[in-house]
Input
Amino acid sequence: MRRLNTQVVIIGAGPSGLLLSHLLSRRGVESVVLERRTREYVEQRVRAGLLEQGTVDLLRGAGLADRLDREGLVHEGFLLRFEGREYRLCFTDLTGWTTCMYGQQEVVKDLIKARETACGQLYFGVEDAAPLDIETDAPRVRCTMGGEAVEVVADFIAGCDGFHGICRPSIPSGALTTYEHAYPFAWLGILASVPPSTEELIYAVHERGFALHSMRTPAISRLYLQVGPRESLAEWPDERIWAELRTRFALDGREVLNEGPILSRGVTEMRSFVVEPMQYRRLFLVGDAAHIVPPSAAKGLNLAVADVQLLATAFTAWYANGSRELLDGYSRTALGAVWQGQEFSALMTSLLHRFPSEDDYMVRLRQARLRDLVTSRATATAFAENYVGLARARLAEAIDAPAVAPAFEQPDPPSETVTSLKTRVRDLDARGHAS
Ligand code: FAD
Ligand code: DHB
Output
């Protein structure tokens, strides 16, 4: 059996595993990344697309944003449609922060290229990876590479292998507590070769169900439809998809949806999942391996990046001066952000979707919440702070702060922002979108 030695063995070359390896290598810590799929497969896998400003800043700080800065589409607000009207929420006015549309598979391509340039040890097509001796100080991963049995011996294992990976199930039952919730609907997502119909995202709340208009590039649109929980793609020929999108995005008969060839399609179930703690001895769980959110608020990738940032710093401190404080605190700190992301994702999911069981009373409550979001500056600000990731940055600061600290610091609201929200609703009136 061939044997490799390293400091951190990383299972999974999704965004979490690749970014962790990259950050560690920049800080002088060696790692080996083992990925089950081929390089082509992980580079083409269509998933997330909305990067929070904090995520972009981290990628830029790590030398990973050359193409992202050229091709990413920076956004300052989104459109929200309900009750046949359109409103614009300018989250940059409310928070000072932006978001960026840039496909997850592009982030993955950039990361793989960076690992290649740095001669990083990254193996694709690795079969049967099995974490062993995780309760000892010398954990190992046994696997098969190109038909050959290989054992990677390391100081630590990072489980970056997603929701269906092998790391979480390798932890003895009883060591982890699971929290989960399944929603009674799913998302049918398409990638279409057509310029986006608007510059900004459109979240459309409709009595037939939610729809989202997003984009990847000026020539590629990404659209989602709320569908039944066990919907089969066979029931959704192209014409049915476009007809349903047209219906849900319709505004007083004004057709605004650009249509084009569908490049790929898939159904994503809507569920929430967290395990606690995110560590067992020398095995650390990162990103989707430890937690998933329904995609509504686009938090999955951004939360994974936040985990990686913490764990990379913790490993670096361990190797720089033997300090285990940050490694010991990894799970507790990460889970603070994870639950914040869970809460906001659940809020956005319940605000935007039609629940099969909801009665007219619940529908009206949801409509009242939506109206509050577009008319109350306080509600819009709290929402925007979560949407752009500022709330997570605040939480991180608060955790680092002294034990006795003011519960919150409330700067005087710039009255101009209140006006700008009102003005925006008025602007929309003038354009005939809202009353
Ligand atoms: P993954 O991306 O799942 O990577 C895990 C890797 O481990 C994979 O490459 C897998 O092949 C590999 N692996 C698994 N098992 C093994 C094994 N036994 N051995 C070796 N390798 C293994 N998030 C956002 O922030 N914004 C969005 O807009 C957004 N939109 C989304 C839309 C959709 C349709 C979906 C499905 C998700 C979306 N997400 C979004 C969530 C986001 O895609 C995930 O949170 C993100 O991929 C997590 O990254 P990860 O590296 O932790 O896990
Ligand atoms: C995307 C997905 C989301 O869930 C969201 O809220 C915004 C954008 C996307 O895939 O583009």
